[in-house]
């Protein structure tokens, strides 16, 4: 059971985190002891004029301090790593409980004009994105969102399924991937501006003389300073320092741009580096994963090494944050200009491959997210892709965002273009939820993920929904007109010949019953002539009567309720045929509306004057 596995891993990583914290604390005291001992020994020797021995002791203690510092840094990293692993497993437990508000909502991806994401709760609070996302990097989150926003072709879906099947049971590899990324703060909300900037023209393109100066001036300046310290004239050194200062002043705007564009990217790049290194060492049999791994050679080096080189350049460019250090380095060593040159050379060798490298990072995190979701829900089925147009066959279909232990599931199937399943039912009986259940599982299946069903066979289609149409005061748009615009969008898309699977909830509800019936019937007949099929939910039994006229493409299903005294019961099961029981009057009565007054025949007689 995943729940038990996550619980055991939380306990294990809690113990390991505590053990490494104790080691780290002990080594911290050792560092302090070495520093104090070294300072005392050197002070004593220098005080008693044992200068040579003092310098020797200083070097020995300094080297020893660096060794212990490196070991201490590694222990601190490992302690944090186990802390992240503990947190990851605690979050898996919370997802199984349905505590989705704890996780990032993906609100930035919300789009009310999208074909289905708003109606199916793909993003936002209590959303599919919160349930699925384990990505840490911005590119990984964006990739997952894009997979949920559009259907993949059948071969790509099957390729993703194979990769996910390989990653799902490998919980250690997946969780270490996620933990490695968590070590670095993702402070840059939009890193793509930096990567776009890397495509800008070379700063040194028309400045060959400056490129030579980057390497020549520091050598002459250092030599002049050495001669000055040896007693020779200091004017050459002062002149060369002044020349470097003037060059910095002349190109200060360019130097500032390099710093501003790159200063926040250091941790982001180290995150990408560690993710790539983790992937590069993985043996894989799934074709998609193997292809990703084999493509991570850039310029004859591993992609992780190239990203590490870029991170190093960015780190050294940030040395100017310390004003005094920057003043010395730029006045003597042409520091900014040298690292600008290194960045330009990196761009020349690697930048053209950067988009692919970032895409590999993004796909890896997205596949790992879907694999973690599949591992956490072992009862969910991996759907089978069918080439039969509009084929959809499910058994035990449930909604993945309903976390009740007694979640109701249904069987459903349809096939062929031009078919409409009309679902009638009483209020609160489950019609809308069923439409969302079908839709959200199609989104999962077409992203390559497991679905909340015991079996599912599907043909990839464009999902389209019209469920939550609302008025818009800013645009002076009524809810009825908003729905009409939504239906017009459906007609436009289906007219292109693209296979569209529509989910329409209570269509044309904003107008009178006569116009609603006529409009709904006309729409269904029009969609029948398109490459489209889908489900339409309604309270109107008149719409269900279409099956008698067109049994070849209309099928009736229903959700029913039973009333016993003042109690209304629902089974939330999908039944064949029209709904046989409605409960609106009873619900209004339970809310305090005296329904007997609706039959009152007495009328007030106007008073005579």
Question: Can you describe this structure?
Answer:
The protein is an alpha/beta fold. The chain folds into 3 domains: 1-99; 192-360, no CATH class; 384-594, Rossmann fold (3-Layer(aba) Sandwich), CATH 3.40.50. It has helices at residues 2-47, 51-97, 128-132, 138-149, 154-167, 171-182, 192-197, 208-229, 235-250, 252-262, 266-280, 287-294, 303-317, 323-332, 335-350, 354-376, 431-447, 479-494, 513-528, 541-544, 546-549, 584-590, and strands spanning 297-298, 301-302, 384-385, 392-397, 410-414, 420-425, 455-458, 462-466, 500-505, 532-538, 554-559, 561-564, 567-570, 575-576. The longest helix has 47 residues, at 51-97. It is elongated and about 110 Å long. Residues 471-476 and 601-609 have low confidence and may be disordered.
Task: Summarize the amount of helix as a percent range.
Answer: 55-70%
Give the total of domains: 3
Give the overall pLDDT as a whole number: 87
CATH superfamily of the largest domain: P-loop containing nucleotide triphosphate hydrolases
CATH class annotation of the largest domain: Alpha Beta
Uncertain stretches of 5 or more adjacent residues = 471-476, 601-609
């Amino acid at each position: 059971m995943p729940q038990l596995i996550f619980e055991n891993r939380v306990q294990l990583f809690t113990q390991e985190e505590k053990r490494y914290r104790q080691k780290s604390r002990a080594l911290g005291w050792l560092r302090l002891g070495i520093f104090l001992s070294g300072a005392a020994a050197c002070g004593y020797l220098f005080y008693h004029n044992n200068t040579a021995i003092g310098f020797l002791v200083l070097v020995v203690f300094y080297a020893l301090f660096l060794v212990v510092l490196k070991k201490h840094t590694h222990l601190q990293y490992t302690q944090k790593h186990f802390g992240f692993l503990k947190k990851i497993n605690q979050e898996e437990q919370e997802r199984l409980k349905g505590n989705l508000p704890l996780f990032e909502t993906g609100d930035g991806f919300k789009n009310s004009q999208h074909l289905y994401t708003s109606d199916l709760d793909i993003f936002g609070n209590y959303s599919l994105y919160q349930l699925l996302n384990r990505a840490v990097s911005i590119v990984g989150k964006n990739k997952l969102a894009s997979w949920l926003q559009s259907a993949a072709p059948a071969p790509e879906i099957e390729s993703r399924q194979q990769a996910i099947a390989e990653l799902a049971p490998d919980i250690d590899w997946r969780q270490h991937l996620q933990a490695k990324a968590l070590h670095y703060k993702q402070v840059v909300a939009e890193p793509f501006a930096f990567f776009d900037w890397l495509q800008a023209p070379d700063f040194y393109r028309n400045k060959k003389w400056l490129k030579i100066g980057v390497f020549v001036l520091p050598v002459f300046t250092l030599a002049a300073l050495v001669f000055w310290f040896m007693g020779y004239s200091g004017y050459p050194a002062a002149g060369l320092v002044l020349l470097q200062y003037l060059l910095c002043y002349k190109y200060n705007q360019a130097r500032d741009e390099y710093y501003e564009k790159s200063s926040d990217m250091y941790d982001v790049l180290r995150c990408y580096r560690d993710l790539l290194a983790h992937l590069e060492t993985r043996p894989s049999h799934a074709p998609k994963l193997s292809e990703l791994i084999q493509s991570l050679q850039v310029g004859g080096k591993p992609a992780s090494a190239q990203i590490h080189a870029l991170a190093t350049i960015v780190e050294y460019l940030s040395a100017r944050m310390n004003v005094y250090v920057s003043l010395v380095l730029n006045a003597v060593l042409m520091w900014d200009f040298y690292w600008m040159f290194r960045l330009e050379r990196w761009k020349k060798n690697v930048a053209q491959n950067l988009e692919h490298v970032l895409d590999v990072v993004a796909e890896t995190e997205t596949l790992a997210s879907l694999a973690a979701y599949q591992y956490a829900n072992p009862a969910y089925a991996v759907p089978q892709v069918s080439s039969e147009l509009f084929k959809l066959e499910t058994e035990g279909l449930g909604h993945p965002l309903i976390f009740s232990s007694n979640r109701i599931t249904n069987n459903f199937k349809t096939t062929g273009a031009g078919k409409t399943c009309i679902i009638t039912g009483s209020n609160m009986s489950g019609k809308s939820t069923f439409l969302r259940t079908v839709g959200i599982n199609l989104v999962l299946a077409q992203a390559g993920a497991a679905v909340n069903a015991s079996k599912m066979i599907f043909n990839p289609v464009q999902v389209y929904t019209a469920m939550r149409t609302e008025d818009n005061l800013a645009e002076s748009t009524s809810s009825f007109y908003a729905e009409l615009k939504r239906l017009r969008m459906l007609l436009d898309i289906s007219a292109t010949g693209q296979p569209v699977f529509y989910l329409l909830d209570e269509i044309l509800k904003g107008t009178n019953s006569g116009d609603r019936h006529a409009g709904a019937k006309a729409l269904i007949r029009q969609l029948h002539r398109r490459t489209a099929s889908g489900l339409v939910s309604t309270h109107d039994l008149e719409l269900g009567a279409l099956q008698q006229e067109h049994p070849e493409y209309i099928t009736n299903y229903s959700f029913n309720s039973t009333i016993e005294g003042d109690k209304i019961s629902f089974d939330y099961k999908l039944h064949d045929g029209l709904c046989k029981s409605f409960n609106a009057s009873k619900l209004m009565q339970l809310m305090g509306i005296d329904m007997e007054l609706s039959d009152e025949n007495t009328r007030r007689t106007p008073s005579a004057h």
